[in-house]
């Protein structure tokens, strides 16, 4: 199995920045793409960004130019640098890993972290 643990969430003002981290463990993790989803209260969970282990990246349109996903394969870490945060970015952010994330139509894998709260105030 793959285990994922997120960290780095918090409370920031609009226009501020946060960096989320996802630490992964498991023998098969390196074979998966990884990414981030988020879920705001009362809304469906949505795709945010993903990255293949080769380094190809994908983003939902609403975060392009503001968020950057990256990875360190040697450390089994995935990051999400979030700049120019907006109140509508407020959500619980979940790390995810699976074989079908690395495309323009990403499908979440079965491995999820527990989530980290990001709150952006006006």
Description:
The protein is an all-beta fold. The radius of gyration is 13 Å and the shape is globular. The strands form 2 sheets. Strands 2, 4, 5, 6, 9, 10 and 11 form a 7-stranded mixed beta sheet that branches. The chain has a 4-stranded antiparallel beta sheet with strand order 1-3-8-7, with no helix packed on it. The chain is built from no helices and 11 strands.
The N- to C-terminal Cα distance equals 40 Å
Give the overall silhouette: globular
Which sequence of SSEs, written as H and E, runs from N to C? EEEEEEEEEEE
Mean pLDDT score:
93
Classify the oligomer: single chain
Which regions are unreliable across 5 or more consecutive residues at pLDDT < 50?
none
Main beta sheet: strand number and arrangement? Answer: 7 strands, mixed
Share of helix, binned = under 10%
**Care to count the β-strands?**
11
Count of discrete alpha- or pi-helical segments spanning 4 or more residues: 0
Short description:
The protein is mainly β.
């Amino acid at each position: 199995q793959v285990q994922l643990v997120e960290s780095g969430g918090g409370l920031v003002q609009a226009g501020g920045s946060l960096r989320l981290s996802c630490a992964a463990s498991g023998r098969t993790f390196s074979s998966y793409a990884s990414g981030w989803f988020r879920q705001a209260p009362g809304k469906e969970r949505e795709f945010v960004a993903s990255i293949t282990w080769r380094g190809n990246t994908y983003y939902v349109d609403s975060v392009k130019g503001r968020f950057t996903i990256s990875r360190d394969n040697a450390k089994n870490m995935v990051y999400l640098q979030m700049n120019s945060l907006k109140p509508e970015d407020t959500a619980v952010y979940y790390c995810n890993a699976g074989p079908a994330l690395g495309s323009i139509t990403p499908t979440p894998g079965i491995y999820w972290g527990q989530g980290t709260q990001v709150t952006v105030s006006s």
